[in-house]
Design brief:
Blueprint: E1 11-14, H1 22-25, E2 31-35, H2 40-43, H3 46-52, E3 58-62, H4 71-84, E4 88-93, H5 95-107, H6 115-119, E5 131-135, E6 147-152, E7 157-162, E8 170-173, H7 183-201, H8 209-231, H9 236-249, H10 263-275, H11 279-293, H12 295-310, H13 316-333, H14 350-361, H15 374-383
Parallel strand pairs: 1-8, 2-3, 2-4, 4-5, 5-8
Antiparallel strand pairs: 6-7
Length: about 375
């Protein structure tokens, strides 16, 4: 097992009715920026629950944080915080709102141009505005980690950043909130979490036995509850296991002591930035084809995955190939289209564009073995058409 350090200070408050604890979790006397996306939290009553549980606090509201939050929008919130002298942020929403609040938190006191946080992938280790979250859409795990992804609309870039100062102080996770979510968002949440696990698991055999078993447990749970929770989100057993799986997929635990990949996400982010395709759906497009192009260096782990998750048998190559097919089948079961051409007709130059962009950034050796060259990148994207 590789050396590692594990740090996660987020207090997770999980279960029915936990929004009632909000006033105990927010620092006494805090002036709050209440940040959220569109109108869904009004329709499902969560906005009113939050307001009811923050009586006595001074609140300034900031709405309109987009799916794949935009740098340009978030900078408006930064200015509000400075003007209103706000000292605590409450993110009420899914991963995009929480990711956006992480950027806002780090940008307020940043010494320099905040766009550098994104374009230079800077780590925010201090001077962040404290924040908490009320999760409304399980998917990204952002409620219990310090990572974030933000889109710069002007340049069509979707870029990741993070830092130890960007953990939420607390996150309230009430599984009953998913009852009002559209099927598409639930489908996306399952596939997003599934692929988060795969990025940390589907590398090569190693000696992190416990990490593998935890990762496999999350994968098996998502396969079991995923299709069911889409059809019956009011079932508390399904909803709670779905929500907890999404958090566990990316709260930092399963990546410790083992190799990680993340190339599927890096490529998928470009498809979202270029075409506006839902994040999870870009992962379903790219992931299986990345496994095919990297087959020779991933087949041992693919075979382990095939045996343990899908109970496959045969030679290593046979099991590994069928494991990819089974993964695609699962994505289809979750309502995913898995070809870029199913989302846009304007795809003929996508591979060249992404290759050039990665070349400019110096991203020429990706993946757990640093063996995803620009040539392989092009092959992955073209296979995904």
């Amino acid at each position: 097992m590789l050396n590692f350090e594990l740090y996660n200070p987020t207090k997770l408050v999980f279960g029915k009715g936990q929004i009632n604890k909000l006033s105990e979790l927010v620092p006494k006397g805090a002036k709050i920026l209440l940040a959220y996306g569109g109108g869904s939290i009004f329709k499902n009553g969560i906005h009113q629950q939050v307001i009811d549980n923050l009586k006595g606090f001074e609140i300034v509201e900031f709405s309109g944080i987009e799916p794949n939050p935009h740098f340009e929008t978030l900078m408006k919130a930064v200015e509000v915080i400075k003007a209103e002298k706000i000292d605590f942020i409450l993110a009420v929403g899914g991963g995009s709102v929480i990711d956006g609040v992480k950027f806002i938190s780090g940008a307020v006191n940043f010494d320099g141009n905040p766009i550098d946080i994104l374009q230079k992938h800077l780590l925010i280790k201090e001077n962040a505005v404290p924040f908490g979250t009320v999760l409304t859409l399980p998917a990204t795990g952002s409620e219990m980690n310090s990572g974030s992804v933000v889109t710069i609309a002007a340049t069509q870039e979707k870029l990741a950043f993070g830092g130890s100062a960007l953990f939420p102080q607390f996150s309230i996770c009430d599984p009953t909130v998913i009852q009002s979510l559209p099927k598409r968002q639930l489908q996306n949440g399952v596939v997003d979490a599934f692929t988060h696990v795969m990025e940390q698991y589907l590398t090569y055999p190693h000696e992190g036995y416990l990490q593998d078993r935890i990762a496999e447990g999350i994968l098996q749970t998502l396969i079991e509850v995923g299709p069911k929770v889409v059809d019956n989100p009011a079932d508390y057993a399904l909803a709670s296991n779905f929500m907890w799986s999404c958090t566990m997929a990316l709260n930092g635990l399963i990546q410790k002591g083992v190799p990680n990949d993340w190339a599927t996400h890096m490529i998928g982010h470009e498809l979202t930035a270029l075409y506006g395709i839902d994040h999870a759906r870009t992962l379903a497009i790219i992931g299986p084809n990345l496994y095919r192009v990297l087959f020779e260096t991933k087949k041992e782990k693919l075979a382990q995955y095939g045996k343990r998750i899908f109970n496959l048998s045969g030679t290593v190559d046979e099991i590994a190939n069928e494991a990819i097919n089974k993964t695609v089948e699962f994505f289809h079961t979750m309502g995913m289209d898995t070809k870029l051409s199913q989302y846009t007709d304007d795809y003929s130059k996508t591979a060249d564009f992404i290759v050039n962009r990665f070349d400019e950034r110096g991203w020429k050796a990706m993946g757990e073995r640093q063996n995803i060259t620009l040539e392989k990148l092009k092959a992955i994207v073209e296979m995904s058409y």
